[in-house]
Amino acid sequence: MKSLLHFGIVFLLFHSCLASEIPYHKAISDLKDSIVKGFGFTSEDEVKITGFDPREAEVGHSVEYRFDLEIDHQVIPFKLLEDVKRWDYVDLPIFRAQDQVHTGLVPKRASANDLPVLAPFVLAGPMELWIHDANDMRLSLPHDVDAGVLKKVILAEGAAVTVKGARSVSLRQPLDFPLPLNRTENGFANGLLTLAQHIRHASRTQASSIMSLRIVGPTSIAAAPSDTTTSTSLKLKRLAPGLVELSSPLRTKDIESFSSVDLEGEAPTILSPSQFSTLWPLSSLNGSNANLLGFEKLLHSVLGDKANKKGSFRLVKAVVSAQTYVKIGFKAEKKVKEGELEGYPAWRTKPETVTTQFEVLAKVDGEEVVPEKVIPVKPVVKLDNVAPNLLTGNVSMSKTQDVHPPPNPFFL
């Protein structure tokens, strides 16, 4: 029994020593350097990052929103991130040691070969879609159509398609929006719905250039269903190699009267009932969507008094993308300088170093890990046991004043 216990202790010590010397991927080392620089430390501070074990990192997927608004010739960037719904241990290449991948030191985890994608969404014309790296994309109208390698798809008025497998959607050309902006009422983002209808009307009347979106990595584009069981067939017209136009034989009124759409349980939202308004060109979002309500409140706060006055603002950039995020804990150890621990109890020995626990949220961008947020972790509060003589000032009991409690008639 003693020999087994001794072997276990030796193995744990050996494993911990090897783990501290594993030459992890350069992305992990760069992440540590970025955190140190973000804290504003210099080499004189002698800060040491410890406990940074990529094997304990958790991975999750989320949706990132980036917007650039131009208001009064001033560009204001915004970056929003949805909460990660689930964290898992995933075997990403950046977590593996450069020369220890197959030694067994890295635990086996779930595979992460596929990049994160956006939930399926519905787009309605008139608009144009520029497709990026879509060599294996399926086109269904509703049956599969061999249209070759598509680089550009034009959606005519009344045509609606469901896009699946997209990694990001971005705006190719800036959009100008008029003011004033309507207020949110009855739980609906009326202001954003009004702006969307303005852009749609301008696209119909050719008063401005047609809305143009760039989609990265779609796996399929299919005719949007008109109800939960059937799909609306679309007509395909080849305009040039890699360029097609999709149109619907139905009238626009018939297209807009769709009550719902079946996205095979993959999308978080569906088309709202016909009595509700949807946000064009994203027909799969209705005016009561929580994200739209949050965007409208943010827009009102940024515009301020301008939201109620006549004028305009420009949407310069808009990107919605699915991202992979990493959550990992570490410790920052810093030497204590003279005078930094003011108010420290005199009876306690002052430590030479101070250790603080942190948790970093970082985005995986190819071969890089970019820190997004560093949060201090509340440590476990240690209880101090103090001897009674320290509390009483080390006074002898013979010198303590006698205290006589009041008599109790029930005591003998």
Question: What does this protein look like?
Answer:
InterPro entries: TUNICAMYCIN_INDUCED_1 (IPR053283). This is Tunicamycin induced 1. Residues 1-19 form the signal peptide. With 412 residues, this protein is α+β, with helices and mostly antiparallel strands. It has a domain at 62-323. Helix content is 17%, strand content 30%. It is built from six helices and 17 strands. It has helices spanning 2-20, 26-38, 190-205, 252-256, 290-303, 388-391, and strands at 48-50, 58-71, 74-81, 121-124, 127-132, 138-140, 152-155, 160-164, 168-171, 175-179, 212-216, 220-223, 235-240, 243-247, 311-335, 353-365, 368-376. The strands form two sheets. Strands 1, 2, 3, 5, 7, 9, 10, 11, 13, 14, 15, 16 and 17 form a 13-stranded mixed β-sheet that branches. A hairpin with a 2-residue loop joins strand 13 and strand 14. It is elongated, with a radius of gyration of 31 Å. The two termini are 59 Å apart. The model is unreliable at 4-21, 99-113 and 252-276 (pLDDT under 50).
